[in-house]
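Data availability excerpt. The first of two example chains:
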Amino acid sequence: MVGCFNLLEWTDDVEVFKLKGYGNSLNYRMGVHLLKDVVNSMDKAIDAKKENQVPGTYEKARLRFSHAETLIPFTCLLGLFLEDEEDFKHIQKEQCLELPPGLQLLETGR
């Protein structure tokens, strides 16, 4: 019975990889807007501090709350949880990553 649950968890991981993660290069683009917003808000806070603006007259932090459908593409754009520097180069070229060897069996149906 435990093996059945492990298989279900594994197949869910494969689905997330293919649909929301590194398995689809479109996901990298989906995270760009959020990254631009994060950097822009940080730049504004840094500039306000440098200009000695009165505390309370500028935004010190922008908290973001989201679901996996937003966070996973964002983490892919940042290259988080990658084990190989070559993988990050694929992301920069907007190329999807290959499935890990154990997961390729599911893809080919063998």
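And the second chain:
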Amino acid sequence: MRTSEEEEEFIWREVPAPSLLKPPELERETCERRRGRDLLLAIDHGRNSKHAFDWTLAHFCRMADTLHLVHAVSNVRNEAVYQATQVLMENLAAEAFHVVKAKTVARIGEGDAGKVICREAERLRPAAVIMGTRGRGLFQSVLQGSVSEYCLHHCKVAPIIIVPGKGTYLKYVKKLPSSQD
């Protein structure tokens, strides 16, 4: 008996990386040495997603790794959504290349975000699935649901959930002028 999850077909659109971002061939990465890891990073247009991306580059990603950026949308055929996501993915790919010289592969998936991320994790078998969260409390996440909560329970690969830090939001908020004279 097949479940509805097995019968459901996912529609994808590849996002081509900019041609300027070709990772250099490194002499020290030969067959005898370790190869890079595959890391799956769930991306959206929110600041918590950007915080998880920055954390990944600073603390987890290495030079030979491949970052698989995955973004879930309701309709991949919508050109406006595709164009906005393509710009986001290109900017993140450029940043990943300049910070850690990591190769980046981007895909846009159609459907429920948690299911898209888990399906992609099953396909790729990455070392980790990394995603941000809004930092809602237990009661709110139980009532409203959460993509990170879904992935924590259903993903067959180790999920790393990055919660927003105390000072994280300060980067995005305009500083108010000082009241001291």
